[in-house]
Amino acid sequence: MKKIVLSTAALAVLLTGCAGGMTDTQRNTGIGAGAGALGGAAIGAMTGGRAGTGAVIGAGVGALGGYLWSQRMENQKREMEAATRGTGIGVTQTANNELKLAIPSDVSFDTGRSAIKPNFAPVLNQFANGLRNNPNAEVRIIGHTDSTGTDAINNPLSVDRAAATRDYLIARGVPSTAFRIEGRGSREPIADNNSDAGRAQNRRVEIYVGERPQG
Question: What is the pTM assigned to this prediction?
């Protein structure tokens, strides 16, 4: 068993140890491969196979599983950073290799409304351009509200905001099959609902984009 653990660890180090000289795409794929190698070695051990063989199989699964952070995703992140500069919209890469846009209420929607605000439209226009160029993109849009009002109001309002964002992007040529929407009402605050500033942060829309490997 010690031999299995040591050989697996060595492979993970080989795959990720030189990350400092890698591009983002290479680094994230390598990390995924290293994780897959660990699982693959365990599979090989449990099935009586050689640890090295299991690790190689696992590395392939790790590299191909989940989302990829491709050069196309990196380019879209940079484009959105430029398009949202000074707006208060957060643009980040998640641990799951998704591009995340966190859009506060002062940009996206008026209180109690689900109509796209004029200053939100240019951001979505730029976003649609990147999505149209990525046929493997999967998009999740999640609407949130503050705690003002009841769940009977907030839950459908959060869904309506996510749906309005989706519909706007579809109208600009993004395939409808790329989207999944959710409304979470006031259940996931990121700030204190006891202040105006906190409630403003909680009224938000989050957009996540992941790129699947080509099949």
Answer: 0.69
